Amino acid sequence: MEYLTVHSPILIVAIPLLAAFIIPLLSRLGSKVRDTFNVSLLGFVTFLVAILAIDIYANGARIYTLGASVPELARPEGYMVPVRIMFQVDGISIFMGLTITVVALAALVYSLQFVKNETGQDRFYSLFMLLYVGMIGLVFTGDMFNLFVFLEILSIAGAGLASYRVNLADAVEGGFKYIVISAVSALLVLFAIGILYGQYNLLSIAALANTMQFNTLDMIALAMLAIAFVMKLAGVPLHMWAPDTYAVAPAGITPMIYMSSAASMYALYRVTFTLYGGQFDTMPIGWVVIILGVLSMFIGVMMAIYQTDIKRLMAYHAISQSGYMLLGVGVGLAVLTDPVALANYGRDAMNGGIFHIINNALYKGMLFLTAEAIFFRIGTRDLNKMGGLAHNMKWTTIFFIIGALAISGIPPFNGFASKLLIYESVFRFNPLLSIIAMFVSLVTLASFTKVFYSAFTGPEMPAYREVREVPKSMIIGMGIMVACIIFFSIFPGLVVDTIVAPATDALIDQASYINGVMGAAP
Asked: Which of 279, 180, 276, 183 shows the shortest CA–CA distance to 226?
């Protein structure tokens, strides 16, 4: 057990990476062998993430340096700065790691039956593992260049999966748009890394933060990084690719691509809080993040209510919900240099924004799965052609109701808990922002009421009389997320104290991140 705990950071990345190349060979032994291998492997990785989380919450952040005589040794003997590939996993990194892994496990189980009759399943599962590696590596890495490498891995795998169903006319378009925005954002990240490396001859995030001078070139690099990550997380006004990509991605993949957007949001937070956090007045940058959040919330939900394609509707709601996360953390960033305001409401606002990441990953991911369950059975995403599905798809109906109530912030579901944290704390910063956030929740409720009425209520339609509930593996995939939603709804305080607050503290405490690599504070 001690060996697994010590080496868990690299094992969590390396095992699924190796599996991505083994899966095509295993398929020659039969689909059951391959599926059993995939689920068992991701279950084992989930176990590794859990023991790493327990270790971090008990003993603090972990550093794992590849090639070092002792993995915790950040700098080789005689060197002033780190030079090897390094993972630096703190409270916010492991929070994202837990979220990504739970969603990936549910998505994998759900996909077993969904892609059973599709061709190219080897490619599907190999890309699935690479997408997971890209996300988990991005949130674990401690240097900028490997952040770029993992961003590229998740982008290429995500584009391949988004266009997996080439028999659908719009699948290639969705994948193409995703790879185009990914290429543009990757170039911006690479240029920014080049600017920082050219000035400081460093790639380690901690070492860069320790020497950052915040000159004109640094500000240009910050702008490039911010635009790149806002584009990848589909924040308004750089959101146009998201509905086209989310709508066509296979069922289990839509929550994964959505999680890759959340990983990009993590990268934005890591850059603004950790890389640049101690170098400038954070109020203007905080307001930029807040405005992006409000625009995403409002425009996302307004676009959603006009949609008749159930997955495009949910894609716009995903954009809207990302706005809550940007709003909460943006308020914390705005008051980061004001200790009184940070203690009074800034930290709570950040808790709300970060809590909303995992809540939204669960109920939004589950709602995407219910939408694909409907498409799986009746072959259309058009709400105007649906009706009466509750008669034959009872589990899907129940799961949809739970997800819809949670995303609308209805008590006692987990969406209410994180939104209430945001409402209360943001109100103390600026009441108007809180009122807008509450209004968006009301429109969200109205929008999902429309979906429920269109898809599930009414008499049985003759065309769908023979429709049956989806296979068990798809129900289990949705059930994993529902179980987490119910647990988070019953024990929101426990979740905030155990995994959310350490994530917030890790973002706020830039000195600890730097000292973990560079030693005592200068």
From this structure: 276
> How many residues make up the chain in this entry?
522
SS3 category, 120: coil
The distance of Cα 11 from the centroid of its chain, to the nearest Å, equals 21
**Distance separating alpha carbons of residues 174 and 248, to the nearest angstrom:** 6
Phi, psi of 30 (to 5 degrees): 120, 155
Q: Give residues with Cβ within 8 angstroms of 466, minimum separation 6.
A: none
Q: Tens digits of per-residue pLDDT, 357-376?
A: 999 888 888 898 898 889 88
CB 425 within 8 A of CB 345: yes
Closest CA to 58 of 512, 515, 498: 498
Q: Please state the pTM of the whole predicted model.
A: 0.92
Tens of pLDDT along 213-223? 889 999 999 99
Whether residue 211 contacts residue 193, with contact meaning beta carbons closer than 8 Å, is answered with no
The whole-angstrom separation of Cα 211 and Cα 199 is 10
Backbone φ and ψ of 387, nearest 5°: 155, 145
Q: Cα–Cα distance between 125 and 130 in angstroms, integer? A: 9
Q: How many whole angstroms separate alpha carbon 26 and alpha carbon 21? A: 10
